[in-house]
Write a structure and sequence with these properties.
The complex is a heterodimer. Chain A has two domains: 10-122, Rossmann fold (3-Layer(aba) Sandwich); 144-289, Succinyl-CoA synthetase domains (Rossmann fold). Chain A is α/β, with parallel strands linked by helices. Chain A is built from nine helices and 14 strands. The radius of gyration of chain A is 18 Å and the shape is globular. Chain A has a seven-stranded mixed beta sheet, sandwiched between helices. Chain A has helices spanning 19-31, 57-63, 76-89, 103-115, 156-168, 189-197, 215-225, 259-268, 280-289; strands at residues 10-14, 34-39, 47-48, 51-54, 69-72, 93-96, 119-122, 127-130, 134-137, 146-153, 173-178, 204-210, 230-235, 272-274. The longest helix of chain A has 14 residues, at 76-89. Chain B has three domains: 21-90, Dna Ligase, domain 1; 94-221, D-amino Acid Aminotransferase, Chain A, domain 1, CATH 3.30.470.20; 235-399, Succinyl-CoA synthetase domains (Rossmann fold, 3-Layer(aba) Sandwich), CATH 3.40.50. Chain B is 34% helix and 23% strand. Chain B has helices at 5-14, 63-73, 123-129, 147-156, 162-180, 217-221, 235-243, 262-274, 291-302, 321-335, 350-363, 380-393, and strands spanning 22-25, 40-44, 57-60, 77-78, 81-82, 86-90, 94-105, 110-116, 135-138, 183-194, 199-201, 204-208, 247-249, 255-258, 281-283, 309-316, 341-347, 371-374. The longest helix of chain B is centred in the middle third of the chain and has 19 residues, at 162-180. By secondary structure, chain B is an alpha+beta fold. Chain B contains twelve helices and 18 strands. At the A-B interface, helix 1, helix 4 and helix 5 of A face helix 8 of B. Chain B: Keywords: ATP-binding, Ligase, Magnesium, Metal-binding, Nucleotide-binding. Chain B: One of its GO terms (molecular function) is metal ion binding. Chain B: This is ATP-grasp domain-containing protein. Chain B: It comes from candidate division WOR-3 bacterium RBG_13_43_14. Chain B: Pfam families: ATP-grasp_2 (PF08442), Ligase_CoA (PF00549).
């Protein structure tokens, strides 16, 4: 098993005619992801990578009622509407690749999704991969190997480095989830940790957080209740206050969102804290073998 | 992105929130004072609080006094910021102060209005003293504020009678500004009731969402452009912005950081500090950067006189190591940088990338003598330690004698 996405998940691509989306549609299909349709308003009838393009999400649903996931690649100003369209169509998992979505837009879209019990991943997520099964998003597939460690991180590059260092040590991933670098996210660490805790094919979880917001702190009490070990790596100790570091969400505002407060909250609830990338596989091994 | 008080007040005035009459003055526009009505309050325009204690808010009874204050205040360093402008406002006689703000609750994922019958001091101070006096009103995202809600808030903080209608309108207007201008915070503290029964926003703080500026052209018309969340951009940061590169200068650093994506960039500056090195910058290449962008990124670092050595890392995922190698090699050949570069390259097309570097080292041994490329076999931490060691071995400019 794995979480969120597997080889059976039928999925669509919203904004498929964009350059980036088209390229990654190709990679996703090559990896085995079941992409059944794409959407770009006004471009219905086109084909991208042999995938039929529709004008609306509803038309895709009419044709393939069992679509379970979508990924959104549209420019930021259209992202809210694209999420709402997917929510309205009843797609259960929405992966939002678009970055720097206006905060008020994301609050609005998130509230809609929540009301309908729909999972939104992102914005600014690199995607979700269940190695050997399927990928939704733009994670570089060569970096991931099938295995029994779940990873969840805010950033794409950190997700690759995590997988890479785990793989070099002989581990692999059940699923790797990018939460996204935007300040307002759909799913948070706790949501994904719950999925991994309940997944019989995940033995341990590595989470990588960064400065900004309070999603790491929020997850801490749940980690205290988990049976599976959680190894946490938090970046941004060297970050200056009041300046965004690349990700829209990566900013220390006043006393909120510092690396220190996150590490303290996680440690107090039993998470194993890693100081560097290289020590993560060893900490995983120790947590699993008990020595 | 924090606005200056005078910018926030300008926005208030244009959208129905009353503020004291005032003029904005810097050293070249002292004549603006002729429009002021005395007595006035001279307020330094800086992003940090604590202006009162720092002597950056002063009363003046006439023009000469005001000029005297202005000359003393402008140029003062408050926190990391230098005072460049002052707001000269008509002094109002305050009968009662309140607190009013609209912001986003990051736990509830909802906008809310915070109101308090006490104002004029930090909301954190009020919370310490009397948490119960702080009232919160949650809104559904995207919903507007109703008139009756605004009246209720006014009544809850004890505004009745003549001022009630004024207060309710002000609360509505402030919330509208919060929504329409995509704000993260609109704070009026104090909201003052004057002795002639007028309600005025005596201080104003607005944080806007930079990512929504595209739909708020009025800000640009008002001369408000991108800056840090708190603070102006440095010259190098402005240059990077034009090039489309997220970049932040870090004070006192000597290692230029040339990473891949943002998340790894944040990790890289941490790791450099973890091993007692001094990162000079944060930078983000974005996904699959072009060769041109990569060369521009390197240029920013090489041109920084404080940078002694460069730490680079490329994790080839979607992007290819050989493309990255080509960009670095071309930069070195074109610009002959006299600074060591210590880099790690791993992932997609790593072998091809390595060949490009090997060829370049063979063809231009002199140019590439201070450039080291590591592979997936060397942990990133080792590469960082090596960079720090090399940066340390290079003396500071001012200790190189007087030649």
């Amino acid at each position: 098993m794995s979480i969120l996405v597997n080889e059976k998940t039928k999925t669509i691509v919203q904004g498929i005619t964009g350059k980036n989306a088209a390229l990654h549609t190709k990679f996703m299909i090559e990896y085995g992801t079941r992409i059944v349709a794409g959407v770009t308003p006004g471009k219905g009838g086109m084909e991208i990578e042999k995938v039929m393009v529709y004008d609306t999400v509803k038309e895709c649903m009419d044709k393939y009622p069992d679509i379970a996931a979508t990924s959104i690649w549209v420019p930021p100003r259209f992202a809210c509407d694209a999420i709402l369209e997917a929510v309205d169509a009843g797609i259960k998992t929405i992966v939002v690749i678009t970055e720097r979505i206006p905060i008020h837009d994301m609050l609005y879209a998130r509230a809609w999704a929540k009301e309908k019990g729909i999972t939104v991943i992102g914005g600014n997520t690199p995607g979700v991969i269940s190695p050997g099964k399927a990928l939704i998003g733009m994670l570089p597939t060569i970096t991931f190997k099938p295995g029994r460690i779940g990873t969840v991180a805010r950033s794409g590059a950190v997700t690759y480095y995590l997988a890479n260092s785990l793989n070099l040590a002989g581990f692999g991933e059940s699923t790797s989830v990018g939460l996204g670098g935007d300040p307002i996210l759909g799913a948070n660490f706790e949501d994904i940790l719950r999925e991994f805790e309940n997944d019989p094919d995940t033995d341990a979880v590595v989470m990588a957080g960064e400065i900004g917001g309070v999603y790491e702190e929020l997850a801490a009490p749940y980690i205290g209740k988990m049976k599976k070990p959680v190894i946490a790596y938090i970046t941004g100790k060297a970050a200056p206050q009041g300046k965004r570091l690349g990700h829209a969400g990566a900013i220390v505002e006043g006393n909120m969102g510092t690396a220190k407060s996150k590490i303290e909250a996680l440690r107090a609830n039993g998470a194993i804290i890693a100081e560097t990338f290289s020590e993560i596989p060893e900490l995983v091994r120790k947590a699993l073998t008990g020595n | 992105m924090r606005l200056y008080e005078y910018e926030a007040k300008k926005l208030f005035k244009r959208h129905g929130v009353s503020v004291p009459d005032g003029v904005i003055v810097d050293k070249t526009t002292i004549d603006e004072l002729n429009k002021a009505v005395f007595p006035v309050v001279v307020k330094a325009q800086v992003f940090l609080g604590g202006r009162g204690k720092a002597g950056l808010v002063r009363t003046a009874n006439n023009k000469d006094e005001a000029i005297d204050h202005i000359n003393k205040i402008i140029g003062i360093k408050h926190g990391p910021f230098f005072v460049q402008k002052v707001l000269v406002e008509r002094k109002v006689n305050i009968k009662k102060e309140y607190y009013l703000a609209a912001t986003i609750d990051r736990l509830e994922h909802k906008p809310l209005i915070i109101a308090c019958p006490e104002g004029g001091v930090d909301i954190e101070e009020i919370a310490k003293k009397n948490k119960k006096s702080i009232l919160k009103y949650y809104f559904n995202p995207g919903h507007k504020i109703h008139e009756f809600t605004a009246r209720k808030i006014a009544a809850d903080i004890g505004i009745h009678g003549q001022a009630m209608d004024q207060a309710a309108k002000m609360i509505q207007h402030a919330y509208r500004i919060f929504i329409e201008f995509d704000c993260k915070l609109v704070e009026i503290n104090p909201l003052a009731l004057t002795d002639n029964a007028q309600l005025l926003a005596v201080d104003a703080k607005i944080d806007i969402d930079e990512d929504a500026m595209f739909r708020n052209p009025e800000l640009k018309e008002m001369g408000i452009f991108a800056r840090h969340e708190i603070g102006e951009l440095t010259e190098r940061e402005k240059k990077a912005k034009i090039l489309g590169i997220p970049y932040v200068d870090l004070e006192g650093g000597d290692i230029g950081v040339f990473p891949g994506g943002a998340g790894f960039g944040i990790a890289a500056i941490d790791l450099i500090q973890h091993y007692n090195g001094k990162p000079a910058n944060f930078m983000d290449s974005g996904g699959a950067p072009t060769q041109e962008k990569l060369r521009a990124m390197l240029g920013l670092l090489i041109d920084n006189p404080d940078v002694k050595a460069i730490f680079g890392a490329r994790f080839g995922g979607i992007s290819r190591c050989d493309d990255w190698a080509k960009a670095v090699v071309q930069y070195v050949i074109d610009n002959e940088p006299q600074k060591p570069m210590i880099m790690r390259m791993a992932g997609n097309m790593e072998e091809e990338g390595r060949k490009i570097f090997e060829q370049a080292i063979k063809d231009y041994p002199e140019l590439f003598k201070d450039i080291k490329i590591y592979s997936v076999n060397t942990p990133i931490e080792k590469v960082i330690e090596e960079t720090i060691r090399i940066a340390r071995s290079i003396p500071d400019k001012n200790t190189q004698g007087d030649l």
